[in-house]
Write a structure and sequence with these properties.
With 434 residues, the chain is mostly helical. It has 21 helices and four strands. A hairpin with a 2-residue loop joins β3 and β4. The model has no long low-confidence stretch (mean pLDDT 83).
Length: 434
Amino acid sequence: MTAVIVISLVTVFATAATALFEPAFHPKHLSWRLYWVAPLVGALILIIGGWIPIGEAYAGLTTDSAVNPIKILILFFSMTLISIFLDEAGFFRYLAGKVLRRAGSSQKKLFMMLYFAVSVLTVFTSNDIVVLTFTPFICYFAKHAEIDPVPYLVAEFVAANTWSMALIIGNPTNIYLAAGNGIDFATYFSMMALPTLFGGAASIFMLWALFSRRLEAPMKPQEGEAHLADIPTVILGLTALGGCILFLVLSSYLSLPMWLIAAVSCLLLYLSAIPELLIRRRGMAVVKHSFQRAPYDVIPFVLAMFVLVMALGRVGATDRLRGLVLGGGELWRSGALSFLSANLLNNIPMSVLFSTIVTGATGASLPALYAAVIGSNIGAFFTPMGALAGIMWMALLKQHHVSLSFGRFVLYGATLSIPTLLASLGGLALVMAF
């Protein structure tokens, strides 16, 4: 048991260090970050050392159950590819441009419009894609309008990682925790709608209290109008997304697994896009760039972390951790511990671990499970280590010469995330009470 725990801890710290120093390589136009190397090495050591037999690891990765990580990855990748398709078609850039131009000379109006635009988009697409799309636009606009971009960037990041709780597709951690425990789309939304509203209200209140004085001065309005350059492709992407969400809502009534619905929707979108793009002589740029931008590095990361969690479970470590989470006040304990763990482990491996922890002999503890969902989302803006999106976001700010230190991020993060976490958990407690 000691060896497995030591290997796991070394793996976690090595992963955090790798993510913090942001190494990456770019084979044939693909951008691969290297945060997955340490988990993969750790998993291989555990298998080669015999702490988890390779047959058992394979069986765990391929089991025909809701917690199958391959099915969860298919669901995540399918929804991500649909979102990236819309981004490549110019949909997100168009909306960002509309928001920036409609604000006129009022920074406060821009601040509120940006928060709500990011919130709505995140609910129906992906928090990571929205953040990585809107950030360059905010940096560009702020530079030309001669205003401080930090309030808008922080609001964007907080909104994306708060409202991503609303639907199961908003964050890969939602998918892993909920879908991995057999919770369908409609049930998830019925439980998480109120906590998300409470968290959203707390986050915008705290953001306004933190930044409103810095938004008093007028700004130079943005000239020109935002236009959709490729309306047919955008319509195709929105149709696929809308149809996918509709069938996900009905999945429990149709007895169809969510991963299959998402995979078929994504496949139909890209198959439909190929002749449509060729006919209009745009080539295959949208399809090609979408697949180039897909986060393939998540695959070895999630699978390796799953093996580590299986090894911990095999030696009884997760049973001991389960005792810390479950029991009296498990909703609040799970919420707080998942929130902190996300910033020690990163929220994806935290979700892999907590998916096992919150499941006892009689099944998953729903208060603890949904609280862990909240912790995995809100924990993303406590420190940059809370989520991969935070690490990539900080790197993006450096590229655009925006000064936001680790310490300043944590100062903003503590001020914003703790009230948002408490409000969200309070909303969940009300839902559970009734």
